[in-house]
Write a structure and sequence with these properties.
mainly beta; eleven-stranded mixed beta sheet; seven-stranded mixed beta sheet; 2 helices; 11% helix; disordered N terminus
Length: 292
Amino acid sequence: MTSLPNCSEETLGSNSSGWLAGLELEFYVAEQKTVSRQVRHHGPLQTQRSFYPEGDDVCHTYILHPPGGVVGGDQLKIKVRMHEGANALVTTPAAGKFYRSAGSKSLVSQKMIVGNNAVLEWLPQENIIYNQAKASQTTNIELGKNSCFLGWEICCLGLAASKEPFEAGLFHQTFNVWQDGVPLLVERSCFETDSAMLKAAWGLRNCSVVGTLICSRIPNDKTKSLLNEIRSAVAAVTEDDLFSVTTVSGMIVCRYLGDHAYKARKCFVVAWKILRESVLGRSACLPRIWNT
């Protein structure tokens, strides 16, 4: 497998006044069972023990961040490597919170390497960007031969329900998917409170929640039927929010734009269930932690 190109303009370093935390996980097949191994751990990043609610084939893992949020100067680095044939579902027990900063910027780096014939379902709960936060999140995914990534990222600008809008600050988000050194999807979003993009019709339209779901390894003969099925199923739950589904570089990409994180999750869970059954041949098995 080729090494992941350096897609991020920012890197994690040691010159920081905040937490420096790192977590590296590996998933591999041993005796016909996907097992996880915590390769490295530093600072306040940990995992719970693995769960197998749907049998030995799929390993469910929860990433924990005990401090409960990210403040200015914090630097978090997460790396997940899926070895050949491994299958894992990774999620978080709570929303990621980026708190206001008095000056320093917080950085979060996420790198996922999905080996040949491996499957990674990346289903974190939403990121909440508090007013006056200064943060950057980079997610890099490298796909192997016949591997599959099925996952999402949801971003909430401010706390709409508490009437605490995102009036000052910035959040830079990068999401890249590569295969054999070739970019399949390269996205950079700059949510800055002085940007017209937050209010413009071509941008966020004053909405506070935006999300993206991606599924690779789509069979060509199923693409059209999957697009139609997802559009029809999600239309029943979107209410007044905006949702779209299309194809990019052979992947299915879903978008959400609205004002409620729970509605974004509802839309994405509907799409995830359809894609999981059609592409992976598995019925939906929601992580138990979501019920707590």
